[in-house]
Amino acid sequence: MLAAIVAGSALAEAAPKRILVLTSGGESSEHEALAGIRNHGTGVPVDSVHSDPKSEDTLVSALAQNNRDTAVITLGSKAQQLAVRAAPSGPVIHCLTDRESDSVAAANAFVVPDEVPIAARLTWLKRLLPSARNVGLLFDPATNAGRAQEELAALRREGLKAFPEPVRDHTALPPALSRLASTIDVMHAITDATAFSPESLKPLFLFSFRNRIPISGPTEEWVRAGALFAVTWDFAEVGAYCAAIAVRALKEGKTPMPAPPRPRVTVNLNTATQFGLRWDAGLLRTVDRVYP
């Protein structure tokens, strides 16, 4: 592991330009992004290292030795935190990081969030549910307070009335849903490991179908399970985008900035039918995936 990290360090003579990917865990999004980085086709060698908690100090020390010929791409917030501690001199691209992570103020850092920008997600909410006015928002205040505030501000800018409900653990979900049942037109999901955990899926869908309140899901998997729609990334495309940013940084910005990835829209037609929604063929042609 250390050999891969220090290959581009200040101790290595005539080190070639390369990309070093630091991963956080076993999330499928990270695997897809890593594949996108490896398949980017830039000709720049790619090494990858997993951020093992048992060797964090050694990893940070080794990362700090990397020179400007190594671009570090972090996948996930754990990897981001380690790179922030190490502060390598070369470019750092924080990919698939959440907005509650350590702030990254270094001039050599670039951030690619794990979630599609709120403006794009609300554009689709209004397109698919044009009559919706009252929007529920579940979030864990211990980990997602900042993100929730951003979402609430965006909802209000769009003329929508927001109803936030903090969910600190699984026991807080039933009373939160009970308070929202007679108030909201749609549940607007954000990436939140507490409010939208696998354990929350069943009670949320029971709430949704019993009260005829559709859910804008946090992932495509939620749409496949019964959420009305989701606006997400193609994570392989995000990985390729991060690789392109890394290569541009290694070339000291002498190439054009790559185009950002396009958000992907997934809808569930069966759910739409159960809620009495009818989308015309023109609208359906603009989405990326339709579950029947």
The topology string of helices and strands comes to HEHEHEHEEHEHEHEHEHEHEHHE
CATH architecture of the largest domain: 3-Layer(aba) Sandwich
Q: Radius of gyration, rounded?
A: 21 Å
Largest sheet: 5 strands, parallel
CATH hierarchy, class of the largest domain:
Alpha Beta
CATH topology of the largest domain: Rossmann fold
How would you name the CATH homologous superfamily of the largest domain? Response regulator
Physical arrangement of strands within the biggest beta sheet: 2-1-3-4-5
Which descriptor suits the 3D outline?
globular
Structural class: alpha/beta
Mean pLDDT: 90
Per DSSP E runs of 2 or more residues, the count of β-strands stands at 12
Query: How many helices does DSSP assign?
Result: 12
User: Helix coverage percent of residues?
Assistant: 25-40%
Protein model, in words:
- This protein has 292 residues and is an alpha/beta fold.
- It has 2 domains: 2-114 and 234-261, Response regulator (Rossmann fold, 3-Layer(aba) Sandwich), CATH 3.40.50; 118-232 and 265-291, Rossmann fold (3-Layer(aba) Sandwich).
- Helices cover 39% and strands 20% of the residues.
- It has 12 helices and 12 strands.
- A 5-stranded parallel beta sheet has the order 2-1-3-4-5, with helices on both faces.
- Strand 8, helix 8 (201-211) and strand 9 (215-216) form a beta-alpha-beta unit.
- The mean pLDDT is 90.
Based on the model shown, name its key terms.
2 domains; 12 strands; Rossmann fold; 292 residues; 12 helices; globular; alpha/beta; 5-stranded parallel sheet; 4-stranded parallel sheet; single chain
